[in-house]
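Do me a favour: review this protein, sequence plus structure tokens, and tell me how the chain folds. Record follows.
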Amino acid sequence: MIEKNKTILLVEDNPDDEELARVALTENHIANELVVVRDGQEALDYLFAAGKYSGRDVCDQPQLILLDLKLPKIGGLEVLRRIRADNLTRYLSVVILTSSKEESDLVESYSLGANSYIRKPVDFTHFVDTVRQLGLYWLTLNETVAPECCR
């Protein structure tokens, strides 16, 4: 079983996709805390301890960010740009998890520093398997770097 203290930040505005992610995590026995935010601004507020998340310890960053691209308020690519631009968050593991089939989204995601780009499988069984593989790699095998201010 994967360690519980490794938080997953799911940035997803679609309640159906959120529910699919929750079920897939449960099916794969991934018991990590799942924090869900519904738009790009809320994601940035969470990461930088602003707005309703002010007072949150900024050194307690998620082990993994699952970032959708098509988001209200601030789009996923801009969220990624801001994550990579700040010393506090630049080394966070960011996996783009999107239904976008646009080549430009793929190219821009990697040029902005995404760690991985995954298209959401339409088939539930494939989605569950994708989440299993994501959990195994990003939450168990991958080594992360804490922000300099938090070391």
Observations:
- The longest strand covers residues 94-98.
- The chain is about 40% helix and 15% strand.
